[in-house]
Structures are given as structure tokens and as C-alpha cells.
User: Fold this.
Amino acid sequence: MSTQPTQPVGRVGRRPGRQDTRGQILAAARGSFASRGFAGSSMRSIAAEAGVDAALIHHYFDSKQQLFLATVELPLPVDELVQTLADSGLDGLGPRIITTILAVWDSELQPSLVAALRGVLAEPEITRVAGEFISLEIIGRLLSGQKLSAAEAERRGALVGAQILGVLVGRYVMCLPPLVAQTSADLAAAIGPTLQRYLEGETR
Assistant:
């Protein structure tokens, strides 16, 4: 009696393998952040779009902040850096911010950071979300101790962000000779007071 070739039985459920699941989550997160923004996206909605349990997403990413950084491939412990800066208070915060940022960008992480920045700037939707993330999760947290209206905090945060981004793009992406030639200490000394004025001084 002849028999028909046995067809392979398809595997039911989610695809196996850590990298597949993590990849599904990252793909869903990129789409969610691009369409809804950082604030409008939630870990639960991203998990649903990825087809995984909401609890599973926390196995790979501790927070929405960490998930966003993974989508732009930015290898930075942003929560720790921001908390350390915030804990030291407002006095001298501007110089501390730029000193900390330059120290990180001058480290062995520089190639990855430059690649991530180029990638963010190349995609308008991601650029917009990155700006929202910086405003809410970095500068917003640093300004949270001040008695500022939401509009004023946003305005000052935009000034700080623009100044820092200009330095990073000019020094590490465009490699402008005057910026590259300066030591990090000299550059921090030049930029720090401007950031401090944006944070708490007269800006009008």
C-alpha cells in the first residue's frame, strides 16, 4: 500500500528563539514610535502589535526608555546618567551635562553613537520621536525641580537640546576642524555656561 509523503507539521504559536522574539518587539516598537510618538506608545500596545505577552516584553526591556534606545541602537545607560546629573542639583548642571556627554562620546562607544546619530537624522519620523524622547526623558527630568510652566520648560529644554546636538553633529559627524581640535575640557568650558544660562538664566 502506497503512502503519501508526510507533510511537516507547522509549529503553532510564537516563533522560537530569543533573537526572533526580540526582533519582533523591536519592529513593533519602531512602528509604534513612528506613528504614535514616544509618549503615545505604551509597552502593552507594543507587545500586542508584536504578538507577545505584555509580561514578556519586560524580559527583554526594563522600560519604554530602554526599548526606544534599542530601536535607534543607542548603547547608553540614559536613566543612570540622567539620574546622576539630576541628583547633583541645578548649580553647575550645564557644565556637568556637557562634560558627561563628551566623556561618553569620547569613549569606546563613539563609533556606535555616531552610527546611531546618523541613523536617527536620516529618518524624519525617528528624528521627531528622538526629539520628543530627549525633551521628555532627559531635559524634562533635569528641569523637573524648577518651578517652570510647561511651555517655559519646553522652551528651555529645546535650547539645551539644540546646543548639545549642534556640538555632537559638528564634532563627531561633520568633524568640523575647530571643534575636533579642541580638547573635551576646553569645549565643555566654552559650552557649559551657555547651557547653564538656558537652564536657569535670562534667555529672552
